Amino acid sequence: MKSVRIYLFMIIIVFLFGSCSLDRKNPLDPHGNDNIEVPLMVVGLELSSTGGVVNIRWQRSEKVNKYRLYRSQSYDGAYELIQTIAMTGLETENTVTAVDDNVALQQYYYYKVSAVNVQGLEGPISSYKYVLVRM
Amino acid sequence: MKKILLLLIISFSLLGLYARTEFDISVFADTLKYNWNNAEERYQYRENLAFKKGLIDSYEAERLSTTLNLGKSAILPGWGHFDTNNVLRGQILLSTEIILAGTSFFLYDKSVEKYDKYKASKQIDEINQYYSDANRLYKQSQLTMGLFAAIWVFNIYDTYVSTNQYNEWLWIRNMQKELDRRINISPNGINIRF
User: Fold this and answer.
1) CA A82, CA A105: separation in Å to the nearest integer?
2) For labelling alongside B7, which of A44, A86, B23, B61 has CA 20 to 30 A away?
3) What are the CA-CA distances from residue B135 to residues A21, A63, A66, B111 (Å)?
4) What per-residue confidence (pLDDT) applies to B104?
5) CA gap B125, B133 in Å, rounded
6) Percent helix / strand / coil, chain A, rounded to 5
7) DSSP calls for B79-109
8) Residue range A77-107, pLDDT digits in tens
9) Whether A92 contacts chain B with CB within 8 A
């Protein structure tokens, strides 16, 4: 009976220790913070290439402070931030455009875009699109 | 003159011998007081008393203090078991505690690393991913620490039990050793058992 109590006590100790969780201390973490609004994932990403540059276009969203454009040379490689496109809030067009001229001819490039809100929180990064650079 | 003085001294000395009567111990002591009916029984009683005293003395000299053993095990799990001849159990407890403490520290360190990245992160996927990783590692670390604490408690309990068992065993062993003695020297003589 004494041994049973000891084992029971041991199990309680293990569960007491294991039930602790870390605090969410990141001020941009939307969990438990209603003031944070997560930007939506960018949609409508389109790429085209003429004249040795890449033209990138996507749908504009409301309440976005800036967009971040990422690029990689393989779809599963490391995506590097190449441009930050700031929004003034006065835009009337439904699309946002960017040009990437730092590219090599006959080379494939992969692009992703994300939106950043006023608080500085970057939303989910879009799925990739790729393009072959042409003259 | 000297001869006369010498004769006087001898005469007085002889007077003492003449005046002496036989000393009877029974006048002063009750020999039946301790249930001794004769000298043989008295010797047996003394022998028995000496046997018990020897047992208690050797037991007191060799017995382990429960408090001291508990203290040892509290400082270093398994230490108390080494003194009670439970070396294997002590080794298992000690190595388990070392492994658990090391694992818990390692996981906690990894958790802190991820948590720092979480706090510095500004991208929602990274925030979620780093928090999830940090929290998972933290919980694993705490579970390991909980297991460490539970085994520590068991170690204390088991030290108490094994110390008492050791002391019981010590008493029985000493008694058996005393009984198994082939040559026994006592006031009654020398006994040799075959």
Assistant:
1) 18
2) B23
3) 6, 31, 31, 7
4) 95
5) 12
6) 15, 35, 55
7) HHHHHTT-HHHHHHHHHHHHHHHHHHHHHHH
8) 999 999 999 998 777 888 999 999 999 999 9
9) no
What percent helix, strand, coil does chain B show, rounded to 5?
Answer: 80, 5, 20
Instruction: Decide if B146 and A25 are in contact by the 8 Å CB cutoff.
Output: no
- Inform me whether the C-beta atom of residue A20 falls under 8 Å from chain B C-beta atoms: yes
> pLDDT (tens digit, 9 = 90+) per residue, B126-137?
999 999 999 999
User: Given CB atoms, is B134 within the 8 Å cutoff of chain A?
Assistant: yes
Amino acid type, A30:
P
Domain definitions of chain B by residue range = 36-185
**Chain A residues with CB-CB distance to B111 below 8 A:** 22
- Amino acid present at A105: L
The answer to whether the Cβ–Cβ distance between A22 and B153 falls below 8 Å is no
Interface pTM, i.e. ipTM: 0.83
A vs B, Cβ pairs < 8 A, gives: 73
Residue B123: in which H helix or E strand, if any?
none
The pLDDT, as a whole number, for residue B66 is 93
Centre a 10 Å sphere on the Cβ of residue A125 and count the other Cβ atoms it contains.
Answer: 19
pLDDT digits (tens, 9 = 90+) for B39-50: 788 888 888 888
Q: CATH number of the domain at A46-132, out of 3.40.50.620, 1.20.272.10, 3.10.180.10, 2.60.40.10? A: 2.60.40.10
CB-CB under 8 Å, B122 with A21:
no
pTM (2 decimals)? 0.72
Pick from B170, B146, B164: which is nearest to B70 by CA?
Answer: B164
More confident residue, A18 or B77: B77
